[in-house]
Amino acid sequence: MRTLFKNIFFIALFFVGAVQAATLQLYKDSAQYRLKTPSAFIGFAPGDIEAECKDATIETFASPKCKKKSALCELKNHIEALELKSASLQAQAHLIDTMIKQSKPQKIDAKMWLEAIEKLGARYALLQKKAKDSDIEAKNLRRLFFSQAPTMQARYLSRPCNGILQLNIPGGLIDVEIFYEADILTDESLKITQIARLRNRSGIDIYAKRADIFSEPITRALRPIKFSPWIIRESRMAPLVKHRMEKRMVVDMALAKEVRYVNPRHYRLRSLHLPSNGEVVRTEIKSWKIPFEKENVLFPYVDLHVYEALRYKPPVPIESDHWSVKSGKRTIAKEVYGRYDGEKYLIFAAIDRDLIAKKEPYIPKSGEHGIIFGKRIKKVDGYTIEIINQSNEKRDIHIVERVPVSTKEEIRVELTDVKANVPIRYRVAKNGKLLIDLSIPAKKEARVDVRFTVSWPKDIPVIY
What is the pTM of this model? Predict the structure, then answer.
């Protein structure tokens, strides 16, 4: 018993030392994991992983054998045992089937023969079912394994490393994503928390005393800039590229003991435990309390939803537009977006279902559509926005709309009128942005009419 306790103590002491020596540098396109270990076993890493020891490259090789006890090793052994069991059961069932087909009894006792066939048939069916169950379980566990590691072949160093071993892990195997969480504390106070979501599928369990996360690639094609002339060429439309976002399951775990905000796009974690299990884990980076304004915003030129938005001035740069919003323990929205609006930041938290909006184009009256004055055409145009407040409370609404703008002097646009059946405030910002503020009493409707004129030379075709 004393010997066993001593062995456990030395193993624990070695593990603590290994964690203290290990560091991780995580970039967008790769990761560098440095550790000190006497073992030649790396993990279930891909074949293009690079290993360095004392500035020298160490070759690695794959092996079907897994000698080190780890979660992935145990899962691999369990899968192989199930596959072996399935093959054995199928072989037994095949043997019974062969025995039945090849049996030629000299004398047939009908009763005895039927009993034998019944027993063999029942045994055959049972073996087939067990083989099928084992095969299904093995396939499901294989899918689970490949969500945690890129290969089922264990990888080893060709020789032990007596110093610090550096593993250069290819990109895409350890993911990091920065997002934010907004917690509404009061009607005027907001708690912003910056969070890192990490996922390890490299096949290597990470135990690092210090981990540095950089939200930029380590490989950068930075070349000296030389002068090139400005040449006018034919303009061609570039093809649109669609990006698909992957939805991931987030698991709340204690990832690191301490996270330090070094500067924008660089974070430092202490005592990072990131096993290769394919689960997304999260850790808080930085949080702060800040005053905010809550407002209802409508963008009729995009859609007719009235958004409940949170507006505040960030004390540090916002590095990601992915947000979740809550109020205490109540989750308001898990996946929403935000954006900068001048010096302030706007978070779209929810949609106010009590406000119903619609937009109708203006129908010109007789003599307003395409009037020709000499060599020019003048047209009266516009639109009407209607908002119904179905709630029992007054609603303040901020409308962001547009009036056309032109890059040619020959085409002129003039805003002629903005009026409503309720008091409004409006102003025209740059690039034709029209900002309108109004209040709608409970159970009432607001109607905003916007009119403008467009004039252009009659020999120029105009569309807007």
Answer: 0.68
